[in-house]
Design a protein that fits this description.
Helix content is 45%, strand content 19%. The protein is built from 11 helices and 9 strands. It has an 8-stranded mixed β-barrel, surrounded by 5 helices. It binds ligand C2E and magnesium ion (3 copies).
């Protein structure tokens, strides 16, 4: 095979690059198969109110139940899916699956909180509003049950097109949430241009709270900004009670993180909601 490539004169990669390209190509094939073989699953991570301690939402996070490698993290395959464009099919599957699950909860008479789904920037095109309309209609769901998490890279691309798609989504009744806030390159002033209802402070800043002065200052600035823009603020990756207490005292609205729960399988999430599990806010 290599010989044939050499003879064809198309071998312009170094051997290592060639190896990486092959691995990527192989992963893409396996991932494409995973999609049809139903090896992809959604886990749910609760978001809790820092006012009441109750579960007020959850984020759907994809996992790959690989037949031989066990549960594969999205960090391992989402980047490849984005590079190859396969994220469009995966993204559609995620939306469909989250909506199918919400329909099942409703049919079972379970009152579930709002569910957030992560969107890749590549999914964010003119057809997105219609794709969302179709899936909501398929499962007969009100748009208010779904939130879309997007990242700052979308704002940087910042074309008018992006704003008008966002406006269309909001007009449909969907809520937009800015994920990983503070890690990208967007200017803070961009924020007021976009119809975003929630900011999620990235774990990178939560880690240093309350010991690292810089992280505390950044967390405080983000919370103040969000409040002024009348946006809800969620802290992600909260692992300790000290972090919780600090963020709560600054006026952060919600917390998501291992302190309360990691992302869990559907049945575990259902038990949590049904049992009325709450976060203890008092120190
Ligand atoms: P994200 O959307 O920022 O999700 C938060 C990540 O932080 C999740 O990792 C979650 O398990 C992890 N996390 C939550 N709380 C804690 C904590 O207290 N400590 C620590 N150390 N980690 C915490 P996960 O599930 O591995 O997902 C990684 C990223 O993959 C997500 O980051 C998101 O960008 C992407 N992703 C996941 N599912 C999807 C999807 O369906 N579509 C798209 N486009 N991207 C997805
Ligand atoms: Mg997210
Ligand atoms: Mg995030
Ligand atoms: Mg993050």
């Amino acid at each position: 095979r290599i010989k044939a490539e050499e003879e064809s004169g198309y071998l312009f990669y170094s051997p290592e690059m060639n190896q990486r390209a092959k691995e990527k190509w192989q992963l893409e094939g396996e991932l494409r198969h995973a999609l049809v073989a139903q090896q992809l699953v959604l886990h749910y991570q609760p978001k809790v109110s820092l006012r009441t301690g109750e579960i007020v939402g959850a984020e759907a996070l994809i996992r790959w139940r690989h037949p031989t490698n066990g549960m594969v993290s999205p960090a391992k395959f989402i980047p490849v899916a984005e590079e190859t464009g396969l994220i469009l099919d995966i993204g559609s599957w995620v939306l469909d699956e989250a909506c199918r699950q919400m329909r099942a909860w409703m049919d079972a008479g379970l009152a579930m909180p709002i569910i957030a789904v992560n969107l890749s920037a590549r999914q964010f095109d003119r057809l997105l509003p219609n794709r969302l309309r179709t899936v909501l209609e398929r499962y007969q769901l009100p748009p208010e049950c779904l939130q879309l998490e997007i990242t700052e890279s979308l704002l940087v691309r910042g074309a008018e097109g992006v704003i008008s798609i966002m406006n269309e989504l909001v007009a449909m009744g969907l809520a937009l949430s800015m994920d990983d806030f503070g890690t990208g390159y967007s200017s803070l002033s961009y924020l007021k241009k976009f119809p975003i209802s929630t900011l999620k402070i990235d774990r990178a800043f939560v880690i240093g709270v309350p010991t690292d002065e810089n992280d505390c200052a950044i967390a405080q600035a983000i919370i103040t900004l969000a409040k002024q823009l009348r946006q809800e603020i969620v802290a992600e990756g909260v692992e300790t009670r000290e972090q919780m207490a600090f963020l709560r005292q600054l006026g952060c609205d919600q917390l998501q993180g291992f302190l309360f729960s990691p992302p869990v399988a559907v049945s575990d999430f259902e038990s949590m909601v049904l049992s009325g599990l709450r976060l203890t806010l008092e120190p």
